[in-house]
Amino acid sequence: MAKYKLEYIWLDGYTPVPNLRGKTRIASEAPNSLDDCPMWGFDGSSTQQADGSDSDCMLKPVKLYPDAGRNNAFIVMCEVMLPNGDPHPSNHRASIIDDEDAWFGLEQEYFLFEDGRPLGWPESGYPDPQGEYYTGVGYQNVGGIAREIVDEHLELCLAAGINHEGINAEVAKGQWEFQVFAKGSKNCADDIWVARYLLQCLTEKYEVTVEYHCKPFQGDWNGSGMHCNFSTKHLREVGGKDYFLALMDAFEKNKEEHIAAYGPDNHMRLTGLHETQSIDKFSWGIADRGASIRVPHAFVADDKYQGYLEDRRPNSQGDPYQICSRVLKTISEVSTS
User: Fold this and answer.
1) What's the rounded Cα separation, in Å, for the pair 168 and 303?
2) Count helices and strands in the chain by DSSP H and E runs
3) How does DSSP classify residue 55?
4) Dist. CA 103–CA 229, nearest whole Å
5) Is the dihedral of CA 22, 25, 31, 36 positive or negative?
6) Residue 116 included in any domain
7) 120: domain range?
8) Predicted local distance difference test score (pLDDT) of residue 300
9) Using CA of residue 40, residue 46, residue 48, residue 54, what is the dihedral sign?
10) CA 21, 172, 282: angle at the middle one, nearest 5?
11) Average pLDDT in the chain
């Protein structure tokens, strides 16, 4: 009789950037839904989520994915709970006031590192300046095994049911991006975390490291972001200039709260250079990649002010649960009447 592998994954208690953790539960039958995935305990004292004298924490399954990387396998995304059933303080997913009519598209940028340097970089010094690497083709632009890794990662994500909308080589050499779209903030954030998990597991066999830091190199090199594209039913179907301007006022008023939720070390990336706005400023602009909020041309077509917007401030290390939650909180402050 076949056995099935259920990989329970969760976020640990490390700050400011949580790590993914995982352990495998063996089942006699394939799960058809989350109802077939029971709660499961783990040692929170080893993940900075409990004291050794009272170390039990619980894993609450919240989303199920097929895992094409292993035979008869599934990935079970989990929230961390206290033994009494309350969400653990590190569980940011539980605090999201979700809205299935809120659509999110997150653009995850990252570097692939080997022996302490991005793939394709020389052993000492730096490669040629930025210019030909973005969406680049050829060994001189993307280097070695990078495309093999990102293509294999794409197949694993698609097999898991994650709605990738694209992948591409990014502006800096050794830098890549994948884009995920989902309806509902929790859905999109879950999918980003599982896509990260699949990428990190995949690179184990290539002996390559995924570097999510938003500015791994100083100098004239682009940092890594996780641009947040968002829309609500009101933005898509009603919109209007007055509502848009009120929304931008709310984003500016909450500028510091957004920065606090958008990932660590963002001051190194949001300098006003390399397609960013300065961390201490807020701006919006039509097709402006140097603004805090980029407004697509289609949004303002025929003066409708309708569609989606892109917040370019979240960085590549950010927790998508906190990013999406902060965006929704700010939107909720603006009246749609």
Assistant:
1) 32
2) 9, 14
3) -
4) 8
5) negative
6) yes
7) 103-332
8) 97
9) positive
10) 80
11) 96
The CATH number of whichever domain residue 38 belongs to comes to: 3.10.20.70
Question: What is the DSSP code string of 128-139?
Answer: SPSSS-TT--SH
Distance between CA atoms of 9 and 61, rounded to whole angstroms? 9
Report yes or no on 337 lying in a domain: no
How far apart are alpha carbons 293 and 277 in whole angstroms?
9
Together in a domain, 287 and 223: yes
Q: Is it the case that residue 337 has pLDDT exceeding 80? A: no
Burial class (CB within 10 angstroms; exposed 0-12, middle 13-18, buried 19+) of 143: buried
Query: How many other β-carbons are positioned within 10 Å of the β-carbon of residue 201?
Result: 19
Let me know: does 106 contact 227? Beta carbons within 8 Å.
Answer: yes
Give the pLDDT confidence of 126-156 residue by residue, as tens digits: 999 999 999 999 999 998 899 999 999 999 9
Structure tokens at 60: 């609450």
* DSSP designation for 34: G
Domain count for the chain:
2
Report DSSP state, residue 18.
Answer: P
> Which residues, 6 or more positions from 115, have their beta carbon under 8 angstroms from its beta carbon?
none
Asked whether residue 185 falls in the same domain as residue 81, the answer is: no
Between β-strands 164-169 and 175-183, what pairing exists: parallel, antiparallel or unpaired? antiparallel
Kindly write down the DSSP assignment for every residue of 290-319, as one continuous string.
TSSEEE-HHHHGGG---S-EEE---BTTS-
Q: Average pLDDT for residues 188-193, to the nearest whole number?
A: 98
Among 32, 62, 95, residue at a domain's last position: 95
Residue where one domain finishes, among candidates 44, 78, 95? 95
